[in-house]
Amino acid sequence: MAETLLLEIGCEEIPAGFIAPALLELEALARDGLANARLAHGAVRTLGTPRRLTLIVESLADRQEDRVKEMTGPAVRVAFDAQGQPTQAAKGFAKSAGIPVESLERVTTPKGEYLLARVNETGAPAAEVLPARLASWIASLHFPKTMHWSGPGRFARPVRWIVALLGERALPVEAFGVVSGRRTRGHRVLAPGWLDVPSPAAYATSLEGAGVIVDPEARRTRIREELAKSAARLQGRAVEDEELVDEVANLVEWPEAVVGSFEARYLELPRPVIVASMRAHQRYFAVERPDGALLPNFVMIRSGRGPGAEEIRRGTEIVLRARLEDARFYWVNDLKGGLEGKLPVLKGIVVHERLGTVHDRTERLVVLVEDLARKLAPKSLAAAARAARLCKADLASEMVRSGKEFASLQGIIGGEYAAASGEPADVAEAIREHYRPEGPSDPIPKTPEGKLVALADKIEATAGGLRAGLEVSGSQDPFGLRRAGNGIVRILVESGWRLDVLDAAHFMDGIYDKAGIPPGDPDRFAEFWKQRVASALEVYGISSETTGAVLAVRPGDPIDVLARARAIEEIRKSPDFEGLMIGYRRTANILRSAPPGDVPAPGQPLAERAEAFGERAEADLHLETKMARQAVETYLKGALPDYVAVLRHLLGLRPSIDRFFDAVMVMVDDPVARKRRLGLLEAVRQTFLRIADFSLLPSAPGQKSN
Amino acid sequence: MTATGAPRTFQETLLRLEQFWSDQGCALLQPYSSEVGAGTFNPATFFRVLGPEPWKAAYVEPSRRPKDGRYGENPNRLQLFYQYQVVLKPAPEDVLDVYLDSLRHLGIDLARHDVRFVEDDWESPTLGAWGLGWEVWLDNQEITQFTYFQQAGGYDLEPITAEITYGIERIACYLQGVDRIMDLQWSRDHTWADLFLQAEIEWCGFNFEHSDPALLFDLFEKFEREAYRLFKAGMVLPGYDYVVKCSHVFNLLDARGAIGVTERVASIARVRKMARAAAGAYLKQREELGWPLLKGATTPEAASLARG
User: Of B76, B134, B141, which is closest to A13 when you measure between CB atoms?
Assistant: First the structure.
C-alpha cells in the first residue's frame, strides 16, 4: 500500500537566504533518489521554516519495482573448454550472479561474444531501502557557507533532530550523529519542548498547534494579510516589497504584525532614506497614504503571537528612532554648503593608485559625457555635464561615508542632495539614476541625461580599470567591471543609441595619456568588450558561432553587431547559405595558400579595366563583385543597414564565384594574371568581411566548423 | 520600561548572569589584566577553544575599542564597554535553549517579546579566528552575539566551542527602560555617568588626540619582537600577553588615523601571524602536559585521549 513519506531536518536557525535554495535541492535529490531506488511515487513537495527543512512524498510505493538485471561475464572463448564444457570462469560468473551455469546466455558485442546473466531482482520494501537514502540526501545538501558543530559533518547550522515517517511508521535515519524518530519541536517560545508527529498527514496541523506555520507560502500569505490589515487601520497601505516579504517569511515561524510609529519630523528626510532605515537592518515595512506620501508608521513582523505587542512596539520604535536620528544628523550636516561644496573632499578619496582620486575621475567623466552627448543627445549636453560633475559628490557625504544602511543609497542620495541644493530636476534625476542598471533585472536610466552619465560612468570605469590592470576574471567580478560592461551594452541597445564603444575607450585613452596615467595592455579593453557583447548576444538568443563571426568585424557598436548577428541567423536558415559558404571557403582557401606578395593588401581598389581579363568568367565576377560591393557600401552608410538585404547581395555572388572557379585557373605562371585574379578574390573576401568573418561559421547550422 | 522582576541596576544584571552561568557549571573568571578589544582575546577564550580539552567559563570583559568613542556624546557609542562572555566547549546540544533561559533569568518574559536569531558570520582577522552563528535580537535590538567557533589562530577547532557574548549595556538599558548608556543606574546610588563619564571623555582625548604615534609604532615593533622571543623560550602565556599588547597598540594607532590603508592590512597580518604562533605554542604545550583538563572529562573518548 502506498504511504506518504515525511522527512523533517530539524536545525538551529538557518540563514533566511539559504532556505528556499535548500528546499529546491532537497526536492531534486528526492526525485532523483527515488527514481534511482525504483520507488514509484506521487507528488513531491517541500516545506520549511528557519528551524526545519521538510520533504513530503505522497503515495510512495511500499516496495521497489522488480527488475531484471543484466550482467556481462567473461568472453565465450574462455568460458568453454575444447569439449564445450563450462570453464572455471563461466562457473565463477554464474555463481556470482546467483544463477545456474545453464541459465547463462550469450551476447554479441563489438569486442566479441560474451556471457550474459539475466537475474530477476525482487524489489525490497521501501522501509528498508529508504533510511540510508534519506541520510544521504541530508548529507548532500549544499549551502553557501557551512559549519562543524560536533563530529566531521557540515551543515548550514547544527542539525538537532530528524523526523522520518513512512505513513505512521517511524524510519531509523541517522545523520550528523542524530537518530531520527517522530519527535519534533515547536516554536521556541510559544511551545518549548518536544512534540510527537503521529503521521505525515498530521504534520502541518501538529506544528500549527505548536506555533509554527510550516508552509513558507502560507507564511508569505499571512504576512501580506497582516500588512494589509495593519495598514488599513492606519488608513494607508504597506509599501509593496515582495523581496522583504520573502526574507521575513524565512525569519519567523509564526508571523504576526506589530504596528509602530516614529516622530513625524523625520518625514522631512528623503523617502529612500526613511525606507532604508526601516528596511535594511530592521526589516520593517513602510506604510504610505493613498496619495503615495509616507506615513510616520511601520509594520514589523514578529515571530509569535499573543501578548507583548506593546512591549515589542516600544522596543522596535527605540531602534528605529536611533537610526532615523543618525540619518537626520547626516542629512542636516551634509546639506551645509550644498552638494557642490562636497567636490573638494573628493580630492581626498583615492579610486586606485594609478587612476587618482574621485575628483580626477569626475573631471574625466565631464569630458567624456560632453563627447557622448554631442553624438547621442545634444540637447541634454548641459544638464548631463552638470550631473556628471556632481554625480560622485555624495561619496563625500556623511550619509554615504557612514558605511551604514545608507551607503547602498549612493547616487540616490546624491540626487536628493542635488534637489535640496537647488539643482534643476533633470540634473538631480540624472545623478539619482546614474548607477543603473545595477544588475540584469534592474532597469536602465529613464532620462537621456541619466543615460549619458550612466554610460560615461561605466565606460570610464571599465576603460580606466582595465588600463590599470584590474581583474575581471573569475566568478566574483570583484570590481564590478563586467556588470558595468553589461550596463553599457544594455543602455545602448535599449535606448537605440548608436555608439562605437571602442572609439569611446580610445577617446578615454587620450585623456589618460594626458593625465600621465601609464598605459596598460592595449588589447584588454577590446577583449573585455567582445566578451560583454557576446554575453548580451547570448541573452538575445544568438548562436555562439554567429556571435564569434560578427564580433570578428567592427565589434564596437552593439546595435550594429546585433543587427548583423540577427541577419546571419536568418540567412543561415536559408537553403542558399550552404552554397554561399562553399563559394566563400574556396575563395578564402586559395588566398591562404597564395604567396604573400601576390595578394593585395585590404583596401586596395579593384582593378578597373575589365577588357584586360582573359576569361569571361573573370570579367563577370569582377563586375558582380563591384556591384555587390557598391550595394553593400550603400547599405552600410544607412543609419541601421538592412543586413538581410546585404547578405542577399552576397548570396547573389555565388553563381559567378562558381563559374569563375570552373573556368579560370588562378595560380598561373603569368604573374600579372595571377596577381590580378588573386586581387579579385581578395576583393570578394573583403566584401564578405564587411559583415562578418564567415570562416568562423560552420557550413550548416548545428555542424561543426573546421 | 521596566520588565517585571528585572534587575534595577547594572551590577544586579551582572550578578544574575554570574549566578545563572555558575549554576550551569561555568568557572566564573575575572577580566583579563591587559587591554583587549573583546572577551575573545582573553586567554580563557583564545587558548581554551584550542585542542581537545573541555572548558566552561564565564566572565566580564572590559572591551576597549579606541575608534568607537564619541567623548560620551553619542548615547550608544563608547571606547570602553563591558561584554559578558560565556564559552562552552564542547557546545551543548541544547545551548540555545540554555541561552534563552539566561534571558528569562534576567527577568525578560520571552512570551511578551520577539526573540530572533539572525544570521551573523563572525571574524577576527587579527586573531585568525572565525565562526558562524547569530546576532540575537530582542525586539529588534541586538543584545548578544552567538558564535560557533570554527577556527582560532588559524587552527581548525575540534570540539567546537559555543561563544556567547552579551552586550550588557544594551541589555541593561533595555531592562531599565533608558535610551542612553550614560543614564544607566549602575548601583543603587550611582549612574554610569557618575562613575565613568569623565574617564570616557579623557580616554577619547587620548585615543584621538594625545596618544603618541611615534611611541606606539616603536612599542608595536618591540612588543612583537618580545612575543616571538618568549614563544621561542617556551613562555606561551607571557608571549601571548605581548600579542595582546600589539593588538591594542594597533587599535590605538588606527584610532589616531596614523595607519595608512596598505599598512593597516600589513599590521593586521603581523598580529595574526603572532596569534598563530601563540596558538601553535599553546597546543604543543598542552599536548606535552597530556591535555590536563581531559582528566576530569566524562566521555570515554576524552578519557582515553587523556591517558594518551
Answer: B134
